[in-house]
Amino acid sequence: MQLDERFDDLIDSLGGFHRAWLIHLGLDLGLFAALRAAGPLGMTPDALADATATTRDAVGVWSWAADAHDLVELTEEGRLVSNEAISMILLDTDRLEYLGGQFTHAVVASMDWDRMAEFFRTGRALETRPDRYRASIERLTEQDIAVFFQEVLSALPQLVVDLSDGGRLLDVHCGGGLWLVAMARRFPAVTGVGVEGEPDSVARARVHVAAAGLDERLEIHTGDVSAATDRGPFDLVYYQYALHSLVDPAASLRAAWTAVRPGGRIIVLDWPLPSTPDEFRTRHGELIAGVQLDAMLGGRHLAPREHFVGWFEGAGIGRPTVIDLPSGASVVLAERPTS
Question: From CA 268, how far away is CA 330, in angstroms rounded?
């Protein structure tokens, strides 16, 4: 690139920082949802502020800024109108194109980045992250749930057949329990157990299970996989964006494998690091590099596909099947023989 092209490219990145915050505010305060509900006529910025219990001056600034960033349209008559494509991408959690959780997590995670320079100098990771961080991961993993239902189940049709007849699920490090709730709704004959180590996430998971009316079919327990192995055997043990964050992934898989019934499966859904420089020089590589920095600040590391394979082999399970999905996620799968 020439100098002026490089300049324009970096200006776009600077604008992207502000755009991300405008999106986060629009999601967190319900501005996008209120505008979508208003329909094609939209509403004035003052009406939007009143509808979302926010201040008129602040929403007035957000309105022209969001229009400048092409997130909404501010008409000549002074009314804000939502863009349906933008609304689908930011609000519809069941779509593979959903990015609302990505923006929420990126902005919330960056609130802790005031410690990033110190981490680079000392190598000392954050000992704890605030509750807001884990709540933002919950929003992030809504996209993973959509990937599971639309891509993983499409790639594993026999799993759909088996779960349609019933079965017992274990969600390891289940976060807010959203995957378990979604699975119980999709497969009415299954029961499930979720284990989670963070007290605030355990509390949210129990609230979500109760709100869905699934207390009789789903249990949430505090702890790691060892807290649930005696509640099996399980037809499916599931790790969603969790295995790479554990201190000893192979030990967790080894414990989980003891609770898998013959014919049952362990499935890991994750977003692996690229394995080559060319993979990093992609849009996915750009994004995952930023996620890796945040993970390291919290004392964790994302991992490439070959590490996941090594963890399965280190657990004594054998070489798993790896399926790269269109979304950029990967599935790592092992099935216990029936005999």
Answer: 8
Query: Rounded to the nearest 10 degrees, what angle do helices 84-91 and 31-38 cross at?
Result: 140
Taking each helix axis from N to C terminus, what angle separates 3-28 and 31-38, rounded to the nearest 10 degrees? 80
Polymer length in residues for the chain: 339
Question: How far from the centroid of its chain's Cα atoms is residue 1's Cα?
Answer: 34
Q: Which distant-in-sequence residues (6+ apart) come within 8 Å of 146 by Cβ?
A: 93, 94, 95, 96, 98
Q: What is the pLDDT of residues 191-226, one digit of tens each?
A: 999 999 999 999 999 999 999 999 999 999 999 998
Least Cα distance to 148 among 339, 334, 325 occurs for: 325
**Block residue for tokens 């993979």:** 279
Alpha carbon separation from 322 to 169, 305, 307 (Å, rounded): 21, 8, 12
Q: Considering only CA atoms, which of 152, 148, 145, 197 is closest in space to residue 175?
A: 197
Residue 197 near residue 164 (C-beta atoms within 8 A): no
- CA–CA separation, 96 and 221 (whole Å): 30
Residue pair 143/129 in contact (Cβ under 8 Å)? The answer is no
273-298 pLDDT per residue, tens: 988 888 888 888 888 999 999 999 99
- The DSSP secondary-structure symbol of 334 reads E
Dist CA 153 CA 182 (whole Å): 13
